[in-house]
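User: Teach me something about this protein's shape.
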Amino acid sequence: MERFAFMIHPLDASDVARKFGIAKLMPNAVVEKALRVMPSFTASHITGINSLQEKQAEGWFVTCPLTAKQMQTLPQEIVTKKLIHAGKLAERMGAGIVGLGAFTSVVGDAGVTVARNLDIAVTTGNSYTVSTAIEGTKKAAKMMGKKLSECHLVVVGATGSIGQVCSIIMARDVRNLTLVGRNTRKLQNLSSRILYETGLACKVTPDVKGAVSTADIIITVTSSVDTIIEPEDLKSGAVVCDVARPRDVSKRVASERNDVLVIEGGVVDVPGEVNFNLDFGFPTGTAYACMAETMVLALEGKYENYSLGRELTVRQVDEITALASKHGFGLAGFRSFERAIMPEEIQKIKLMAQQRVS
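Assistant: First, the predicted structure itself:
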C-alpha cells in the first residue's frame, strides 16, 4: 500500500466555521488570531484508490490552519513554519510524499524550503494541473466551435510557474498570444523565450481587463485573493479556464453572461472507489489535478520532489501526463463555478454567443 498526504487550508474564516461551528459566532479577526496558534491537524483519511496497474494507495488531508489572506500578509517565516509543521504531521502519518494545495503551493519559494525541512518528498501538483488545464481548454474551445489556429489566447498570471508552461505549450497552437502579469520584465523574458522556441511573437501587458476584452480563449492562474475578471470584461463566446484558487473569475459571470463558457482547470477522475471522507465540492470520485499528481507519484513509487519552485518544464508535464494515464487518471467532465456543466449546456452557450455576434 502506497501512502501520501495532501496539505489543505481554509480559504477564509467561513471555511473554518464548517469544521468548527463556534467560529460562526466570532469576528473574522478573532478566528484568524486563533488559527495562528492552532496546530496542524488531520482532516480526513483517503481510501479506495486502485490503479490500473493493480496498485493501491491511501492518504490523508492534513490542514495548515491559515487562511489565504494570512498566507499572503503574515511574515514569511511564520507561514513557512506552519507549512513545515503540517508537513511533519504528514511524515508521522506515514506518507511518502505530501502535496501542497491552494496557497500552500505558491507562498514563499513554492515548496522548496518546505521540502528541505522534511524527510519525505514534496510536490505542488502544478505539472498535472498544467496538463489538465491545457487538455480541458482545448476540448472546451472545440466544443464552442473554435479553431485554435484562429484564436487569440490570453494567459493571466503568465509569469507564475503554471502560467509560464501553459503559455509555452499553447503558443504552438494559437494565432495570437497575450501574456498578462504585474512584472513587465518577466513578461518580456517569457515573450522572448516563446519567440525563440515557437516563432510566435507575443504581446505583454499588466492590464488584465484590456487584454481579456479581445480574447477568444483565456487561461487565468493568478494568486490573487480577489476576483479580477468581471462579466463586462469578456468578449461574447469567450472560453475561460480558471485554474486559480480562490477563483479569478467573478461569480457574476455565471448569472450575467450566458454567452461565455467558464470552466475550472484541473478536474480529474480518480481510479477505484475513492473515498475522500471530506466534502470539497467535487462529484464523487473526482479531485483537483494537484491532488491527483500526488496520488500518481505515490502509486508509481516515485517518492521524490516534483513540481517545486517557480520553474516547471514541458518534460515534467509530459511525464506526469503519461504516468497519470498509466494508472487510470484522466480529465473529468467539465465543471463551472463548482458545479458540473453538461455538453448540452455548452451548446446553449455556443448558440447564445452566435446570436449575439450576428
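Now, about its shape. The first helix runs from residue 13 to 19. The chain has two domains: 2-127+267-331, 132-265+334-357. If you'd like, I can walk through any region in more detail.
User: That's plenty for now, thanks!
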